[in-house]
Each structure stands twice: as C-alpha cells, then as structure tokens.
Amino acid sequence: MKYVLFYTVNGLGLGHLTRCLAIARQLKKQDSSLVPLFFTASEGSHLLYQEGFAYYKVPSKTIARDSKLFKRDLAISYSEILTSIVNTYRPVALVVDTFPLGSMNDLLSVLGLPLKWKKFFIHREQMNMDRNKIETQSFYDYIIAPHSQGITKIPIPANKKDSLFWSNEILIREKSELQSREEIRKNLGVAADENLLLVNLGGGGDTTTTENYKQIFDLILNSSSLLRQKKIRLLVPKPPLNSTNELKEIFLKLPASTISFSHFPLIELMPALDFAISATGYNTFNELLSCRIPTIFIPKARGYDDQYGRAKRAFDAKAALFLEENQIKTHLMKELQLLFDKKKKMSQSMSIFLQADGADRAAQFLCKNINA
C-alpha cells in the first residue's frame, strides 16, 4: 500500500480542501495502488468522509481561538500529529496546498525528514507573496500551478523553474459526471419557463457575508416586477462554514419558492442554472465559468486570495460582470439587468476563457513522478 498524504488547512471557504479532493479522486482512478490520506484542520472535513477518504482532523485556528486554546500548544500538536502520521504510514508523497510551511509552520517537522518521498506544492495564485514565502517552496520537489499557463504569475525560487507544472483549472467533478440540465431541474422542481438565479457568497467564513446577503436579498425582493417579468426563482445554498442566527433569520425570510439547502459540490447543480450572483473563490469561479453560467462576481477581501484580480480577468474577457462589495447597494440591480441582456454573448466568451481538466492532469503528474 502506497500512501499519498494531502495537507489542507482551514480557510474562509473550502478551496484548499476541494482542490486536494479533486486531485485525490483522479489519483484513485489512475493508480489504485496509491491511497490518499488527509491531514486537515478544515471545518468542512465531513466532506472527506462523504467522498470516501480517510482523514485526521485537528482543531482549526478558528475554533481554537474561540475555545481559548493557546496558539503555541496548537502549533506543537499539529507538528507532533503530523510527524506521527508520517512515521506510521511512510507516505510516498506529500501534497500541500497554498501554504508551503503549513498554516502554523507545522510542516517544518516533516519537510526535512530523510524519507524516500516526493513533495508537491499546489501554488494557487496569491497576493502578498514575500521573498521568504517564495523561497520556502524550495522544500518541494515539484510545484503545481492550478491554472492555465500564462493566465497569472506564479513566483517561485529560481532553482525551481523546471519543476513548475501548469495543470489548468482544477474542478472536483468532470463534465461527464454531471446530470443534464433537465434532470437536475426536475429533481429541484424548477419549471421549464423559470429562470434559476443562484445567490452564493462562498463558504461563509468571513465577516461580511451576512451583510452582503441582506443587501442582495433586499434589493432583489423589492424589485418584484423584474422577478415576475423574468420569472426568476432563487437558489440559495446554505453556507457550510456559517451558521449564525442572523444569517438563518435572513434565509427564513426568503420567498417560499426559494430553493435553499446544503449541497457539496455545488457544481453538481450548476447545469440547472440560468444566472448567478457569486463570490469569487477559486472553486466556485471556475465551476460557474466551466458550466457557462452568466454571473455577477462579488470579490471578497482576502489576505492571500486575489478574488478581485480573478473577477477582473473574467470581466475583461467579457465572460462575466463584477461588483465590489461597497457597490452592491448602488449598482446591483443595474448589473442584474445587464446580465439578463448579455446572457448569450457571455456564454460564448466563457467557452474559451479556461481549461477545466486540471484535476486529471495534476493526478497524472503526481503518478508519473511518484512512480519515476
């Protein structure tokens, strides 16, 4: 049995976890002798069980802070548990997403171990990459950029230029795995003449999500004539990382026709959509574009994830519209009308905007280099 250890942190959404899950699924298909094993602090760890993967779950920094655990003790426990896992399973490969040293420098306990394993770093485009963070990628044998080549810049150490692999965009489901538009809409109870509008602001781990939802719903529901004219029906997934009472109350006030429940991965429902208003996290952004759903993207402020740059690229390619959070009140309804009018043109632009075979290509790259 050859284990591949995936390391995923807890973020403000499910991006780190979902990318690694997507690669792990393809890895199982391509080489049954490789067994994915996860170490995670994600509060979405139950999704690993849902997808059939074994995992070790540690407290996230969020729950540790709320529970008043000492940060130093948490970091030590991460390192000790990681070291124990590596010494027990002797993995043939380590796959780490976004943070080369781990969320608390805890990977330092295993990166230097004298093991016969291959180390892969998934380098999603990031803001605020200082020289130290760039150089720490030298701990890895290979660097995977989960983007189409040339769409963004990936700073890496000078000695790693030959180790960089552009996988294309990574999605957790292939097109062939998705049901047809008609099947999904039938299961959801959506009539053929209704326009299904997704409103989704990400995992829900950030502080502005509740206020953004309130602004969007107030504007849309106060424009009843537009809703009737376009026969709009809302699909509002419940955020997996936000269960505040205030947000629950907002959702309870939505029209009875609203479709609202938790579902992962959301891409399984996207072929049924006609339009979307969405945050701009890596996964949802690429999923909506790959399914050619005309979207108004609302980039959320992040420390590392450049959601604004991602939304701007799609806008410049005429593949989407976008609003900043402080523009929702003043511009949303005008942009929504524009979205309705430009549906056909946007769908055409989306078809050439990205290449969504990244999970398969990344898994092939892992298999080739693990077995080399």
Describe what is shown at a glance.
By secondary structure, this protein is α/β, with parallel strands linked by helices. The chain is built from 15 helices and twelve strands.
Individual helix count? 15
Distance between the termini: 17 Å
Task: State the assembly state of the protein chains.
Answer: single chain
Order of helices and strands: EHEHEHHEHEHEEHEHHEHEHEHEHHH
User: What value does the average pLDDT take?
Assistant: 91
Radius of gyration: 21 Å
Spell out the key features of this protein.
five-stranded parallel β-sheet, 15% strand, alpha/beta, seven-stranded parallel β-sheet, 372 residues, 15 helices
SSE map:
Layout: E1 2-8, H1 15-30, E2 34-40, H2 46-50, E3 54-57, H3 61-66, H4 71-89, E4 93-97, H5 108-111, E5 118-122, H6 131-135, E6 142-145, E7 164-166, H7 181-188, E8 195-200, H8 209-221, H9 224-230, E9 232-235, H10 245-252, E10 275-278, H11 282-290, E11 295-297, H12 307-316, E12 321-322, H13 328-341, H14 343-350, H15 358-370
Helix pairs in contact: 1-15, 8-13
